[in-house]
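Worked example

This section walks through a single chain of length 184. The input is the sequence exactly as stored; nothing has been trimmed or padded.
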Amino acid sequence: MAILARKLSAAILALAVGAGAGPQDQSGKMPEYVVKAGFLYNFAKYVDWPEGAFEKADTPIAIGIVGKDPFGEALEKTLKNKTVKDRPFTILRFTGPADIQRCHILFVARSEKERMAEVFKKVDALPVLTVGEELGFCPAGGAISILIEKEKPRLEVNPDAAETAKLTINSKLLKVATIVKTSK
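Given that input, the structure is written out below as tokens.
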């Protein structure tokens, strides 16, 4: 079981750093939000959006951040000159749920923990991949949660939330994640 856990943890970290996410800190570890920026980049590779989610063939993949932005420059550095399926990236920042505009991936910062229901209501039935960083995010209705436990990333995926948003998550991503259902 421990070997499987180590392999799974290595696969998850490879998914994040496959982005060329960035430098390690002095201890040899990547800072938390460099790792999470790498995940956001890679999620764009492993998620398919429905037809009509993008206005044109070259419309950028819009990554929105709602709440207090924890990334600093890490997200810009990770996405610089990168494309997925010939689409560049753009980053949008929203101070709260009421400010959320059309985006393809929405990162819900910890600062929005108390307003998750408002966030989900704002993007309800839209083709938006919701990504959080809190333990209860997926059971509350989020699609993916990036959790850091004992300095290692762990992913939770809620396939029902992805299906509601009309998104298809690649089986490679599902294999490295813990599947979570929405709480009733």
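What to look for: Residues 2-179 form a domain with the Rossmann fold fold (CATH 3.40.50).
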